[in-house]
Amino acid sequence: MNSFSPGFQGRARQVADKLPPGQYPTESFPVLSAGPTPKVPVESWQFTVTTETGRTHAWTWDQMMALPQQETVQDIHCVTRWSKFDTRWRGVSLDTFFEDVETAADYVVVSSYGGYTTNLPLEDLLDGQAWLVHTFDDYPLSPEHGGPARLLVPHLYFWKSAKWVQGIQLTDEDEPGFWESVGYHNYGDPWREQRNWGD
């Protein structure tokens, strides 16, 4: 005899469909960082995109805020096995930053205030897949969660969504970042459980 209501079964099925293997859902938003939390005033914040030839495109905070803003609702998945559904963000699509960037590079290294780095294929940042976000749940992004601005790449494990983002360096070769160089998977697809190099 089934003791669950049809509504509960439907909700459980919906959660199961959204949950990558090995993950558990949470309503909280755990704070995990590789080092101390940098405090970056928006007055001195700058974001740069540097091509493989050394050409640099730069935006101040005010210039970034003047770009077209997008609201996006995304599920996020941490390599430590928690998943948080329907998170609400506001920011600028990476497509906007790359509109005038000429490059033949296939990869990027993302750098953060505080020294953190992570690597991604360039194609994973484009076509509406990634944002530079400054607002979470209608509030300015707190420093603990990467404020004033962080990268959001929700289709990969959350360590790829670099906090306190400072710049993107386009590269011809794939160069592992902080966690990748100590054994985390180079790509990090949660649906394939790519947690470590051997996965």
UniProtKB/TrEMBL annotation:
Residues 35-179 form the Oxidoreductase molybdopterin-binding domain. InterPro entries: OxRdtase_Mopterin-bd_dom, OxRdtase_Mopterin-bd_sf. Pfam families: Oxidored_molyb. SUPFAM superfamilies: Oxidoreductase molybdopterin-binding domain. It comes from the Bacteria. Coiled coil: none annotated. Gene3D superfamilies: Oxidoreductase, molybdopterin-binding domain (3.90.420.10). This is Sulfite oxidase-like oxidoreductase.
